[in-house]
């Protein structure tokens, strides 16, 4: 199973804790024996690779961090556009 969170901002290490919580929740409440392991994907608009690397260093949960524009085209095609995601997050 896959679980994604989009943050319309720069990566912060604390986002991994939040995503790890959601992955654990999905594993406990939604995942069935026939499902593959739940993987968390955090999409951000900007990231410092060194900060991401050190933040992920102690993670036991399978989590990835990527900028939307760096995702492979096949993954981008399966997700709403970056503009659609940003619009959904606006509180106007």
Automatic annotation (TrEMBL):
Residues 9-71 form the YhcG PDDEXK nuclease domain. InterPro entries: PD-DEXK-like_domain (IPR053148), YhcG_C (IPR009362). It comes from the Bacteria. Pfam families: YhcG_C. This is YhcG PDDEXK nuclease domain-containing protein.
């Amino acid at each position: 199973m896959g679980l994604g969170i989009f943050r319309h901002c720069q990566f912060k290490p604390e986002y991994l804790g939040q995503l790890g919580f959601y992955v654990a929740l999905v594993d406990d409440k939604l995942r069935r024996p026939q499902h593959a392991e739940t993987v968390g994907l955090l999409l951000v608009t900007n990231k410092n690779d060194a900060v991401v690397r050190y933040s992920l260093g102690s993670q036991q949960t399978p989590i990835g961090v990527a900028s939307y524009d760096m995702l492979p085209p096949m993954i981008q095609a399966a997700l709403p556009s970056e503009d659609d995601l940003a619009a959904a997050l606006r509180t106007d």
